[in-house]
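Write out this protein's structure.
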Amino acid sequence: VQLVESGGGLVQAGGSLRLSCAASGSTFSINAMAWYRQAPGKQRELVAVINSGGGSTNYADSVRGRFTISRDNAKNTMYLQMNTLKPEDTAVYYCHARTIVRGYWGQGTQVTVSS
């Protein structure tokens, strides 16, 4: 499984961005998918997770109500809609996909929120 993120960039506080994660390879084996982020000097943290069918989601308290995770299995793509962005959302955002054998990571996409 290969994962490629896109959609990061520089945005002002209060703005929005939509991240995408395109999966390829053995996509039929993917179960849950998730977005993580890592800010400079901090540990990588879970932002949001979605189950295989897309009907169940969960969010970190810090983003609940502002971010929305979704996936389109027909397109093998997962999304993260980020609204009302804050400077503390600045981080590298990583896509993660889980199979019954192992997990896979994308290369990350930088999100920078200016105040």
